[in-house]
C-alpha cells in the first residue's frame, strides 16, 4: 500500500491472512527533517554573496543564520582540516582538475590566510639575507623592518582587494556563478608558488632572480586563468576578455613589485638604511704665544 510518497511493504501468507496485524486508521505520515548536510558531518554552508555551489544551498531556517559580529558566521570560512588544506595546496602546484570543482562547494580562508602570511615572512627573510651578503664589510648591516611592513601591505592588499574588485565587476555585469569566498580562496592559494620563489630569490645573481620571478608569475597566472575563465565567461564574451586582461596586468604588477621592491639593489624598500657617519672631532684653536722681543739693545 502507499500513502503519498511513502511505500509500505506488508507480508501476506498464501491464504491472504494478515495475521495479528492491526491497522490504525488514524496513522499519519510526516515529512522527515533529516537532510544530506546532516549526514556529511560538515557545517551547513550559507549562500555567501552569491554563487551556485551545491553546498551553499542552506536550509533557510532562521536558526542557521548568523550575524557578521558573531564567531559562528566566520567559522564556516575555516571549516577545513590540515589534510584538506594540504590536498588543495598540492592541487595548486600540480593541477589535475578545476580547482573550484575540487573545493566541492566548501571554499575556505584558512589556507589563503596562512599561505599569504608565510609569503610575507619569507619575503622579509630572503630580502634581508640578500641585503646582508650584498652589504660592504666596512659598515655594519642594519636590519630594515620596513621590508616586513612593505611585504604585508603588498601581499595582503593584493590578496584581499583584487578578488573583491573582480567579484564586484562580475556581479555588475550580471554573473550568477561568481562567489566572493571562492574568488578570495582562489587568489589565496595562487600565492603558494611565491614561497619557493622567494626563498630562491635570495641569490645574489640578478639574472637568476629575474628567472625565478618569471617562473612564479607564469605558474600562478596559469592557475588563476584556468580557474577564472569559466567564471568570467558568464559575464559575456567581450567582458570576459577585458576582465582576463586586467587579471594578467594586475598579476604582472605584483610580480614586478616583488622583484623590484625586495630583490633589487636599488629598491626603495629593500635598500640598507643610511648609517650616519661618525662625527669628526672638533679641534679647539690653540692660543698663539707672543714672540719674545729682543730687549738687549735697550739695556745699553
Description:
- Helix 5 (110-134) packs antiparallel against helix 6, helix 5 (110-134) runs parallel beside helix 8 (194-200) and helix 6 (146-172) runs antiparallel to helix 10.
- Helices cover 50% and strands 1% of the residues.
- A two-stranded antiparallel sheet has the order 1-2.
- The chain is mostly helical and 300 residues long.
Q: What class would the helix/strand composition place it in?
A: mainly alpha
- Give a count of the beta strands, DSSP E runs of length 2 or more: 2
Give the distance, in angstroms, between the N- and C-terminal Cα atoms: 161 Å
Q: Please, what is the oligomeric state?
A: single chain
Helix content: 40-55%
Order of helical and strand elements: EEHHHHHHHHHH
Average pLDDT level: 75
Regions with little confidence, pLDDT below 50 for 5+ residues: 36-48, 52-63, 270-278, 295-300
Describe the sheet with the most strands.
Answer: 2 strands, antiparallel
Spatial arrangement of strands, main beta sheet: 1-2
Strand content: under 5%
In DSSP terms (H or I, runs of 4 or more residues), the helix count works out at: 10
Computed Rg:
35 Å
Shape estimate: globular
Describe this protein with a few key phrases.
300 residues; mainly alpha; two-stranded antiparallel sheet; 10 helices; 1% strand; globular; disordered C terminus
Amino acid at each position: 500500500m502507499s500513502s503519498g510518497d511513502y511505500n509500505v511493504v506488508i507480508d501476506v501468507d498464501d491464504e491472504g491472512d494478515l495475521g495479528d496485524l492491526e491497522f490504525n486508521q488514524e496513522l499519519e505520515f510526516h515529512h522527515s527533517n533529516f537532510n544530506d548536510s546532516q549526514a556529511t558531518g560538515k557545517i551547513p554552508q550559507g549562500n555567501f554573496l552569491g554563487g551556485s555551489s551545491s553546498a551553499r544551498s542552506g536550509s533557510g531556517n532562521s536558526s542557521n543564520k548568523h550575524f557578521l559580529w558573531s564567531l559562528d558566521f566566520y567559522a564556516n570560512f575555516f571549516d577545513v582540516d590540515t589534510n584538506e588544506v594540504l590536498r588543495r595546496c598540492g592541487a595548486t602546484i600540480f593541477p589535475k582538475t578545476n580547482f573550484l570543482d575540487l573545493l566541492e562547494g566548501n571554499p575556505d580562508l584558512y589556507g589563503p590566510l596562512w599561505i599569504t602570511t608565510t609569503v610575507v615572512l619569507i619575503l622579509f627573510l630572503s630580502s634581508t639575507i640578500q641585503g646582508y651578503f650584498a652589504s660592504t664589510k666596512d659598515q655594519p648591516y642594519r636590519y630594515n623592518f620596513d621590508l616586513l611592513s612593505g611585504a604585508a601591505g603588498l601581499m595582503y592588499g593584493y590578496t584581499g582587494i583584487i578578488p573583491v574588485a573582480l567579484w564586484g565587476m562580475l556581479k555588475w555585469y550580471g554573473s550568477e556563478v561568481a562567489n566572493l569566498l571562492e574568488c578570495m580562496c582562489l587568489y589565496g592559494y595562487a600565492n603558494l608558488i611565491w614561497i619557493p620563489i622567494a626563498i630562491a630569490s635570495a641569490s645574489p645573481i640578478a639574472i637568476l632572480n629575474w628567472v625565478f620571478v618569471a617562473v612564479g608569475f607564469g605558474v600562478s597566472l596559469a592557475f588563476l586563468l584556468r580557474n577564472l575563465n569559466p567564471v568570467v565567461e558568464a559575464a559575456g564574451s567581450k567582458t570576459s576578455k577585458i576582465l582576463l586582461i586586467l587579471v594578467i596586468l594586475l598579476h604582472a604588477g605584483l610580480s614586478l613589485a616583488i622583484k623590484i621592491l625586495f630583490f633589487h639593489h636599488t629598491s626603495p624598500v629593500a635598500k640598507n638604511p643610511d648609517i650616519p657617519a661618525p662625527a669628526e672631532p672638533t679641534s679647539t684653536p690653540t692660543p698663539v704665544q707672543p714672540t719674545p722681543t729682543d730687549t738687549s739693545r735697550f739695556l745699553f
